[in-house]
Amino acid sequence: MNSFLLALRSSFGFLSTIPVGITMEGLDEFFKRTYLHQVVGLVLGLLMGAVAYLLISFIPISISAVLIIAFVYYITGLNHLDGVADLGDGLTAHGSVEKKLKALKDMSLGIGGVAYAALIIIAFYAALTSLYSEASILYSTSADVARIFFFAMFVSELSAMQSMLTIAAFGKSIHEGLGSILINNTTVPKYLIGFVIGSIACIGASSYLGLGVTGILAFIAAIVATFVLLNISNRHFGGVNGDVIGASNEVGRIISLITITLVLMYGGIV
User: Fold this and answer.
1) Can you give the pTM of this predicted structure?
2) CA-CA distance, 153 to 174, in Å (whole number)?
3) pLDDT tens for each residue of 211-224
């Protein structure tokens, strides 16, 4: 198989639950092309957007939001949420950097991890329901509101993928593992390729729906939030690992959704 196609297939195997098969050779090819995060983000974002569109069209928002969240974790797996939990344990541990690192890497789940994971899910739900409220004020038809959700899920997934690339490109690894391999292989040029792919997709989606610069604002907001997370991780652990990369995915998605909601709330269509 062509090395690029092998890398592309492996990128879906690594970043989603789509059963495409994955091998170490494929992972090696994928890690050489880490910008493929955004290709996966394009496909997953379209799938999430389509599901959100259908749910919002026919089912009340409180139920739709739960089902959207369930689908996101079904198609992406729970590895990123697990990263949030591990990060929560590490951040809430008291004492030296060594003690915090021990809590970060500990396989057991502590109260800090439970709290952080729960907060992420609650924030995800709140962002979706708030987005519905603001979209319903601006648009008179359910079809228009559903299109906003398609757009928001698409942009938020691209933002989540770029958030992981941001940690990988600018973070310093604290131990060996898949996270360190991703970090070592994500150079600034590869990061910029991902950034360009994500930016063009977000701008294109915004333009198609007449939403101005809403998409790129959400995309950039997620990256800014990721740099905040990177700074926090550096202060507490002296660097980052795979858990922090996974957590950035969840943070980036939610910040993107919140940004879109705030733009609708305060700026109408920017």
Assistant:
1) 0.94
2) 32
3) 999 999 999 999 99
